[in-house]
Design brief:
By secondary structure, this protein is an alpha+beta fold. It contains four helices and five strands. The relative contact order is 0.14.
Length: 137
């Protein structure tokens, strides 16, 4: 370091801090906000949590299981007048990533809609027939 550089600012070093006559001085509470942390990666933590969330993969039913589900649906269709109670486990795809989860619903069946291929419960729950994994009567 050059010795001349150490005394370069001696003339202004001890001068009073300039205060504007036109603008009022900012309160210390507002000045602190200037130095608050900046979140450059907004949403990054949420994206990591979403990636870490586990999902199940869809299991394709074998011919025997398909035949059993069809037989149980046929029995429910024949007994719709009594609104039969049953427990249906079905696959619900995840809206955000591959896979999904298996959900079990217990209730009374109101209708089996052959046109839309759905099972409709008395409480309004709708299950796509293609997603059904098992039925317990």
């Amino acid at each position: 370091m050059n010795p001349e550089d150490t005394h370069k600012y001696d003339g202004i070093l001890h001068l009073p801090h300039p205060v504007s006559r036109r603008y009022p001085q900012m309160p210390l509470s507002n000045r602190a906000a200037q130095f608050s942390p900046f979140a450059a990666l907004t949403g990054h933590e949420a994206a990591i949590r979403e990636t870490a969330r586990l999902t199940d993969s869809f299991v394709e039913l074998g011919e025997d299981q398909k035949a059993q589900v069809d037989e149980q649906l046929r029995w429910i269709q024949e007994n719709l007048a009594q609104k039969p109670a049953c427990e249906i486990t079905y696959f619900q795809p995840d809206g955000k990533k591959d896979g999904g989860s298996y959900i079990t619903i217990r209730g009374r069946v109101k209708k089996i809609d052959a046109y839309t291929h759905q099972v409709i419960f008395t409480d309004g729950t709708v299950i796509p027939i293609a997603s059904i994994f098992s039925i317990e009567l």
